[in-house]
Amino acid sequence: QIQLVESGGGSVQPGDSLRLSCTASGRPFSTYYLSWFRQAPGKGREFIAAIRWSDGNPVYNNFLKGRFTISRDNGKNTMFLQKNNVEPEDAAVYYCAAANIAYVSGGYYNNPSRYAYWGQGTQVTVSS
After folding, report:
1. Which of 61, 72, 74, 80 is 20 to 30 A (C-alpha) from 24?
2. Integer distance in angstroms from the first to the last C-alpha of the chain?
3. Residue 11 pLDDT level (bands cut at 50, 70, 90)
4. If you write DSSP's letter for every residue of the chain in order, what string do you get?
């Protein structure tokens, strides 16, 4: 089992910066990808980015690339998601998830069903 706990959500204003954290614990996850998804009201779960825990290699949703930055602190078992210049359409619940490398390699990073472990989510509200 891998436990994932997100933090850093809350209410932000357009133009603010956002930094979310996901702290992982449990079984060793060196053979896993950890990823960020988000889900806005009435929409499906959208893949943002993934990071291969063993070497920090990132994978981004091509439609969102350049807007988000994923990173990790291996020593603290924590993954981050950074976005500068938050926009109203960034309002959503942000989730971190973990999947074995074998289940998402080959382009399946964006498929939520491939992920075995999920955090509880952190809400981001954007309002001026």
Report:
1. 61
2. 40
3. very high
4. -EEEEEE--EEE-TT--EEEEEEEEES--TTEEEEEEEE-TTS--EEEEEEETTT--EEE-TTTBTTBEEEEEGGGTEEEEEESS--GGG-EEEEEEEEEHHHHTTT-TT-GGG-SEE---EEEEE--
